[in-house]
Design brief:
By secondary structure, this protein is an alpha/beta fold. The chain has 8 helices and 9 strands. α2 links the parallel β1 and β2. It is globular, with a radius of gyration of 24 Å.
Length: about 300
């Protein structure tokens, strides 16, 4: 077609037609196309550990899954017994959360598991460790660096400590993980003196409280301590939950509570963790945080079969 031979009104109509087509086609394609795929959150529950009511990893993960079932754009899978049922599920995971025993028995440190998790991180996937799972293998210093690269901090034996104490969380930072969370006080095995990068570079504290002098003086759960460097910081704040945004585009979270299963009945403790599960998966956290209710039946469901403690 020769534009020079076209009259002005015809030329105007010609270009308007092209513009209309350019605008309509993408909109039609969007309307007819599929919705964005849901984010896939993988919760890895550790094998049975400790006595009844303690370290109930499977019951905790199943509870989280139930609380998140109505969140749009998110699919939650629970894999118990210390690892995923099939390594292939990690290839499409948007976030992996491990709630388990740690140290040398940590599921991430068995076989080639750390390599598989590193692949998740390399493509911008989220990683979150809960309670004992924040502890690296004290016998291998490199695992501390690995955990810090994933989640920003690591529990290190004889540097960190694990007393049972009542943490009083009075204030929270402006962050999606703390949305809708009100001050709360609760007794748990709150680990502290976590090994962070120098100056906590890149790390955002979410849950911060001040241990009492008696808490710092011990005894700790194991080793019983006390440690002079822990006692020397009496009156200072400690971080029990934190997060990072990694250079690879992924997110990381560490949470040191979660020893007692009964504590998940606390609305604020549960909310701050549910918020973190969304955030680490790159799912928008609601303005007031994740609203959820749990019943006594919910709390009693999926507990590991364990031998009752001797009285």
């Amino acid at each position: 077609m020769h534009f020079t031979s076209m009259k002005l009104p015809t030329l105007r109509h010609y270009f308007m037609g092209i513009l209309a087509t350019a605008l309509v086609l993408p909109m039609a394609a969007f309307a007819e196309g599929e919705k964005p795929a849901n984010k896939k959150l993988i919760l890895i529950a550790g094998k049975p550990s400790h006595g009844p009511g303690d370290h109930e990893f499977n019951a905790g993960c199943m509870l989280f899954q139930k609380c998140l079932k109505d969140i749009p754009g998110l699919d939650v899978e629970v894999h118990n017994n210390h690892w995923v049922k099939d390594d292939a599920v990690l290839e499409t995971a948007d976030a992996v959360v491990i709630y388990s025993d740690g140290g040398k028995g940590h599921p991430a440190l068995q076989s080639n598991h750390s390599e598989l998790l590193q692949k998740v991180a390399n493509r911008g996937g989220g990683i979150m460790m809960m309670h004992y799972a924040v502890e690296c293998n004290a016998g291998e210093a490199a695992t501390g660096d690995l955990f810090r690269s994933w989640i920003g901090g690591a529990y290190e034996s004889n540097f960190s400590c694990n007393p049972m104490w009542e943490a009083d969380y009075k204030k929270f930072p402006q962050h999606p993980i703390s949305r809708g969370v009100s001050p709360f006080k609760i007794r748990d095995e709150w680990y502290f003196s976590i090994r962070f990068p120098e100056g906590m570079k890149g790390v955002k504290s979410i849950l911060v409280a001040t241990p009492t002098d008696e808490t710092r003086d011990g005894p700790y759960v194991h080793p019983k301590g006390p440690y002079p460097h822990i006692q020397a910081r009496k009156g200072e704040e400690e971080t029990m939950m934190w997060c990072i945004e990694r250079p690879d585009g992924g997110r990381g979270v560490g949470f040191t509570g979660g020893h007692f299963h009964k504590n998940w009945a606390d609305d604020n403790m549960r909310k701050v963790v549910l918020n973190a599960l969304l955030w680490v998966s790159k799912v928008e956290v609601p303005t007031n945080g994740v609203e959820s209710k749990v019943t006594e039946e919910d709390m009693a469901a999926n507990l590991d079969p364990k031998t009752p403690r001797k009285k």
